[in-house]
Amino acid sequence: MRDAREQQAVAAGARASGEFFIPDLCAPRPVFFLVLLSELVVLIHTLAVSQLPIFDWTVFATGSLLVQWLVLSSAALLCALRSWFARRSLAVAAAGSIVLVLLVTALSSELVIRFYPQWLGAGEQRWWLLRNLLVAALVAGIALRYFYLQQQLTLRERSELQARLDSMQAQIRPHFLFNTLNSIASLIASYPERAEEAVEDLAELFRASLRQSGRDATVADELRLCELYLGIEQLRLGERLRLEWQIEEGLAALPMPGLVLQPLVENAVYHGVSLIPAGGTVSVRLTRQGRELLAVVENPVPERPGASNGEQMALNNIEQRLQALFGDGASLQRVAVPGYFRVELRYPLEASA
């Protein structure tokens, strides 16, 4: 009972998220799988009836013609009825799909019997029809089971990936909160009005940050987080913190993982400009390079060996999240020379961007 309830919950969740275990059979990949599977069945049948070492090419050719007609016709009908099946329960969708395949098989077999009776013996026609229906039911069941397991695997991987991303993003938030509260605390005694303004900016910053956890972020969202954070830091550092923005036009609506750019800017301020008595300039540059987006954050650093643990934690966190989201398609490169530090973040854009 428990397994049945879990399967029903998964199916309901998949339907709610727009998922359906039968893929779009108008797409090339699933059609190729069906054609390959059916051709393997024909090959096995031909090997079973052939007298080796002679391979019966006639059986193989006629069988391939009939089977591929059945497969492609069934795929076209399932593609046309996919939206209707998607609104039904898992059992109804699976049973309806198999019935549809059996109807196509029965109709096609009847046409062969009627117009090409010479292919069959006088008493073999009905048994041949029954055999075709049994084979069609088995192959359809195997294909549907494969599609279902493939969907469950995809949903599980997606769930595990989201859990990993949420965990890593949760590590960024306390680090960011502590740094920001330290900045506000330094203003309370000497500039209480600025501190009050910084608290208001912090509240807006957290509202914007928390909104991103429930949906995909964009370049505009992440730039807004950076502006809010830098506004708080400018209240503390004043003229010591200078900013340089180089944002290519037309990037605002492009997708960007949440909390990847703001931590880089935070590192540039907290571990760079704030430690230099004369301050410095934080440069943020965003450009689109083909199918990729490149973000570069540059800042001066004091003469000190290496980077602090906090800085490394944020960079490693961002790198792991990019790896989880994009694999080898994304990268985070560090360039450190005396008095200077640059981070280059690169990731592929979605096809819809």
Q: Can you give a write-up of this model?
A:
This protein is 63% helix and 12% strand. The chain is of the alpha+beta class and 353 residues long. It has 2 domains: 2-156, no CATH class; 189-348, Heat Shock Protein 90. The chain has a 5-stranded mixed beta sheet, with helices on one face. Helix 9 links the parallel strand 1 (241-247) and strand 2. Helix 7 packs antiparallel against helix 8. The chain is elongated.
Q: Can you summarize this structure?
A:
By secondary structure, the protein is α+β, with helices and mostly antiparallel strands.
SS class:
alpha+beta
Overall geometric form: elongated
| CATH architectural name of the largest domain | 2-Layer Sandwich
Average pLDDT metric: 80
| CATH domain class name of the largest domain | Alpha Beta
Notable traits:
single chain, 353 residues, alpha+beta, 2 domains, five-stranded mixed β-sheet
Question: Topology, pairings included?
Answer:
Blueprint: H1 2-16, H2 28-49, H3 57-80, H4 82-86, H5 90-115, H6 125-188, H7 192-212, H8 219-237, E1 241-247, H9 261-270, E2 280-289, E3 292-300, H10 309-326, E4 331-337, E5 340-348
Parallel strand pairs: 1-2
Antiparallel strand pairs: 2-3, 3-5, 4-5
Helix pairs in contact: 2-3, 3-5, 5-6, 6-7, 6-8, 6-10, 7-8, 8-9
